[in-house]
Amino acid sequence: MDPLTENLLWEDKEIRFDTPNVQKHLRKGEKVLDTIYHIEDTKGNPSDTGRLLATNLRLVWHSLSHKKYNLSIGYGRFVNTNTRSVVSKAGAPTQALYILATGSNTRFEFLFTDISGDTARRDAPIFQSIFEIYQLYQRTYLYRDLKLRGAIILSGQLIIMPDELVYNNINGVWNLSSDQGNLGSFVLTNIRLVWFADANHTFNISLPYLQISNIRIRESKYGPALVIQTAETGGGYVLGFRIDPVERLNEIYKELISLHAIYTENPNFGVRYDSMDAKKRLEKMKEAEEFKTEEFQEIDERQEREVNTKLNTYLAEGMAVAGTEAPVREPVYCKELGFAMERIRDGYKLQDLWDVLPRVEGQ
Fold first, then answer.
1. pLDDT in tens, 144-177
2. Judging by DSSP bridges, how do beta strands 106-114 and 147-148 pair with one another?
3. N or C: which terminus of the chain carries fewer CB neighbours within 10 A?
4. What does the buried/exposed string (b/e) look like for 231-270 if buried means 16 or more CB atoms within 10 Å of the residue's CB?
5. Which among 258, 139, 154 has a CA at the least distance from the CA of 196?
6. For the chain, which domains are there?
């Protein structure tokens, strides 16, 4: 099998500028999950109207007025991202998406500003989809990246990911990475090749077909071995496995070649996002957070009438008029409170003065 260097996954791991027709040249399996219109690349291309495309691998901005101006920012290069309130050139408040990213030992800062002038978008979460897609990307790295010694085996069984199907479980596979070798098992799925040691399940490898650049059978000091070379983006490892007998080795080799070819035609990067479902969730959240007008008015009216006006009146009547002394009333013993208190004036009851807020019916 020839090296598959032309299929190396770079989209989520690189930052590229002014790639011809970047918005149209998506790799197999890459999908535009959301599009945000009327966006300016404020730091790089001010005054240019463009649009943001959020795919399952990266964020793409491209100018509508200058076709050669564009950006491709892989999610794997994101360091920090947030939204900011800024003032547009027209002097009106608007939203902007700030992204701090790193690439080739260089730090990049991007600011994408809404220049639509639409007042309805000022307080709307127009960049929310980007945050949600990026979070999904972070949680699905096993679909795309090689993982050594991961928590992927539970009770001797591979923990299956969404959309993953197990095609074959193969025992008696020796990992030749050490001098003595380690006996373990293969699990072949539609997304990855997994090997784990029988004696220690935490000693394992999860290798997506996406990160395989070469598969072949070669002679080793242990005899014929299955040799798998990972892509540069997968660490550039050379992994050797011995499977007896040779006939069984050849069968597994052919199966791996087939699974790799099928996956390459329709890769699954793990990010599952539906913009319509996301909008419905957002609308429900808004409804849950908003006060209903009638409820708010009822609470407001109740507060005005629930304040104990009798207590206020009682206190006001007992205040001394300017230039006079307040009348003194003799103390009496109160059974309800258990101590002596000033005698209550005529026309009032203890309950009138004790309840700061009136009792609610039924309580």
1. 999 999 999 999 999 999 999 999 999 999 999 8
2. unpaired
3. C
4. bebbeeeebbbbbeeeeebeebbeebeebbeebeeebbbb
5. 154
6. 5-140 (2.30.29.30), 142-265 (2.30.29.30), 299-354 (no CATH)
Cis amide linkage into residue 245, ω under 30° from 0: yes
Phi/psi region, residue 174 (left: phi>0; alpha: psi -120 to 50; beta: rest), is beta
Q: Are 268 and 29 in contact (CB under 8 A)?
A: yes
Query: What confidence tens digit (pLDDT) does each residue in 98-108 have?
Result: 999 998 889 99
Nearest to 129 by CA among 196, 258, 240, 35: 35
pLDDT tier, 322 (very low <50, low <70, confident <90, very high otherwise): very low
Looking up tokens 């008696």, which residue turns up?
172
Contact 206, 192 (CB under 8 A): yes
Give the chain's radius of gyration (CA, Å).
Answer: 35
Determine the pLDDT at residue 311: 54
**Which stretch of 16-30, 265-279, 299-313 has the lowest confidence by average pLDDT?**
299-313
> How far from the centroid of its chain's Cα atoms is residue 186's Cα?
31
Mean model confidence pLDDT for the chain = 85
SS3 content of the chain, % helix, strand, coil (to 5): 25, 35, 40
Of 115, 43, 111, nearest to 83 by C-alpha is 111
Q: Is the pLDDT of residue 321 over 50?
A: no
Q: Using an 8 Å Cβ cutoff, are 215 and 253 in contact?
A: yes
